[in-house]
Structure formats: structure tokens, C-alpha cells
Write a structure and sequence with these properties.
The protein is an alpha+beta fold. It contains 3 helices and 12 strands, in the order αββαβββββαβββββ. It starts with a helix and ends in a 21-residue tail after the last strand.
Length: about 210
């Protein structure tokens, strides 16, 4: 079976051929039939392989924890692309950004200037990108915080980094097992061993008593 058919395309479908100099960040919104979560790194399209349950559940855990603890000035998105420059538009697994940067329901990317934290959960096909390429690019773009998440015995281990603005590189600030407890970018605690628990869901408020 051809790769085209796996994406529901005809066998004679031709994948987009890059122009001279490579694709640009704006091209991601214009190219037809790109697989979900396609990224742009150095002008090249990066296609993402199917993700594992660990990857999906780790994203869910971090997204919920960050949403529930972030101050009102911040918001959280998952798998949403970030414009670093003309030739680079990666898609962090989770990101925290300034809430005032929300431009509405048709927005397709955030600019790196508004991103406070980028999180990447390392998968088998993204080891080099998540350990070397993306953190270098996120730091050069001025994103203050970066988390890299690795698997150890089925649970997440979080490597936290903070931007050294004098060198525009990240400095590691901790390696976290079982529990992640930080004061930046805002105070938060995440129980990493709760990976396979369902997040609590708040019950809707009781309707007002008309007799009251």
C-alpha cells in the first residue's frame, strides 16, 4: 500500500515538491492534503508518525494540570503550531502563551513572542528534534521555558529548562520524577505518576431554586 493511500489519497497523488529555498511558514496554511500535525523545520515539511498511548496520555496530563493552575494572564493549547521565523513553524505538544494573544477561532498559529513555555514529549521518531533541534530553535526565538518529557518505565520524566538571555541558550533547571513542583513560569505542582488516572471533572452548578 502506498503512503498516499494511507492518508486516504489516490495512488497517483503526488506529495508537494518544495520550491527553491524550501517552504515557508505561511505555506502550512495553504498546502492541500497535508497530514495532521505537519511541522516546518528549516524550510522542510516534517510528517509525524502515529503516536503511542504514553505520548497521548502525557499530553493530556500536562495540558489539564497547566490549565487548572495557570493564572488568568495565560492560556494553554495542545498540538498548536508556533511561528519562530519564516522557515520554522514547529508544533509543540503543549504550550503556554499569553491569553491576550488569542485572535479567535480561525487562528492557526502563535508567534513565538507570546509563548511562555513549550513542551515536547519525546517519541521514537522525534528524539533528535526534541533533544537538540527544537530546544535550540525555541531558545533562539526567545521562548523563556522549555520542558522535554521522556518515558521511564511507563511514566514521564520531565527535564525543565530556562532561557539564559545572555547567550540565548537553555540551561537545565531540574530532572523531575513522580512529581513536578515549580515556581516558574508560575507556581504549579503536577503528579507525574497520575498519568493513567482520569482527570477530575467538575460537576455543573446546581440550577437556582425558583422557590428560593
Amino acid at each position: 500500500m502506498s503512503a498516499a493511500r494511507e492518508y486516504g489519497l489516490d495512488d497517483d497523488f503526488e506529495w508537494p515538491r518544495p520550491p527553491e529555498g524550501g517552504w515557508t511558514a505561511d505555506d502550512l496554511d495553504r498546502l492541500p492534503n497535508l497530514p495532521p500535525h505537519t511541522e516546518l523545520i528549516d524550510g522542510s515539511l516534517i510528517l509525524v508518525s502515529p503516536q503511542t498511548r504514553f505520548h497521548l496520555r502525557t499530553i493530556r496530563l500536562l495540558e489539564y494540570a497547566l490549565l487548572s493552575q495557570a493564572p488568568d494572564a495565560y492560556d494553554v493549547d495542545r498540538e498548536f503550531s508556533v511561528m519562530l521565523d519564516r522557515r520554522n513553524r514547529p508544533e509543540p505538544d503543549v504550550l503556554v502563551y499569553r491569553a491576550d494573544a488569542d485572535t479567535g477561532p480561525h487562528q492557526t498559529w502563535h508567534h513565538s513572542d507570546v509563548v511562555v513555555l513549550a513542551v515536547e514529549v519525546v517519541s521514537e521518531d522525534s528524539v533528535e528534534r526534541d533533544r537538540e533541534i527544537k530546544p535550540r530553535k525555541y531558545a533562539a526565538a526567545g521562548i523563556p521555558h522549555y520542558w522535554r518529557v521522556e518515558e521511564s518505565e511507563g511514566l514521564p520524566v520531565v527535564y525543565t529548562y530556562e532561557l539564559d538571555r545572555s547567550t540565548d541558550t537553555y540551561v537545565i533547571t531540574g530532572i523531575h520524577h513522580d512529581r513536578l513542583k515549580l515556581t516558574v513560569p508560575f507556581p504549579l505542582t503536577i503528579e507525574l505518576n497520575a498519568l493513567n488516572r482520569r482527570p477530575p471533572v467538575a460537576l455543573p452548578p446546581e440550577p437556582p431554586d425558583p422557590q428560593a
